[in-house]
Amino acid sequence: MDKIRPAYEELGAEGFYALHGAAYRNPHEPRVHAVLAAILTDPITAEPALLDEVLDLACGSGEATLALRGLGARDVTGIDPYTGAAYRGRTGRDAESLRFEDIAAGALTGRAYSLVVCSYALHLLAESRLPALAYAMSEVTTVFVVVTPHKRPTLRPEWGWHLHREVVVDRARARLYRTSPNPTSPTTRP
Ligand SMILES: C[S@@+](CC[C@H](N)C(=O)[O-])C[C@H]1O[C@@H](n2cnc3c(N)ncnc32)[C@H](O)[C@@H]1O
Question: Is 124 in the pocket of ligand 1 (CB under 6 A)?
């Protein structure tokens, strides 16, 4: 990490991935696996149907995809504009080359996923663009898991997302958001 930090600072985050994305690997991948397992097998949030049709947003070299497969996901689609070769190399599948900005502008309109996961990446999007992306995600899924080594970003109820569960494992934080405030309340689930 110390070796890549100067390049990251010089090129900016996106410029860095545009140049080096084919060789990307997350050195904290075991944490990504552990925190996804913790939140998706938590008795409060676990639902087998969640893993039917999953979108791994900003999928890198497949860190979250491989974790999701290990948890029994039936189908995982990866999206990332810069790491296609790395993703293919580790998962055997092509990633769709879309940026957050394309998705915020409606590139996924008409699709439906049981779950969207975005790991170690949503903090790269400018804060001012987060509401549009959050709204676009609420059009394609009802459950959004954000994994981050930071406190931010957080999704807000006024953007359509309610925090349902948060788990921290070894400084990796997973927040599970839903589009409805409380799906386990007697008014929404008999
Ligand atoms: C730190 S990596 C995280 C990758 C992987 N999800 C993980 O858990 O390791 C950040 C990812 O965000 C992607 N990325 C950078 N800028 C982006 C943008 N504007 N839109 C979508 N993805 C972007 C990069 O290509 C990179 O794969």
Answer: yes
Amino acid letter, 175: R
Statement: residue 185 has pLDDT above 50: no
Q: Are the C-beta atoms of residues 154 and 23 closer than 8 Å to each other?
A: no
Nearest CA to 36 out of 167, 143, 138 is that of 167
Residues 179/161, Cβ–Cβ less than 8 Å: yes
**What is the bridge-based pairing of β-strands 53-57 and 75-79?**
parallel
CATH topology of domain 28-179: Rossmann fold (3.40.50)
Q: Where are the domains of the chain?
A: 28-179
Task: Report the pLDDT averaged over residues 121-129.
Answer: 94
Does the predicted model carry a pTM greater than 0.85?
Answer: yes
Distance (angstroms) between ligand 1 centre and the Cα of 168 equals 21
| Residue owning the nearest CA to atom 20 of ligand 1 | 99
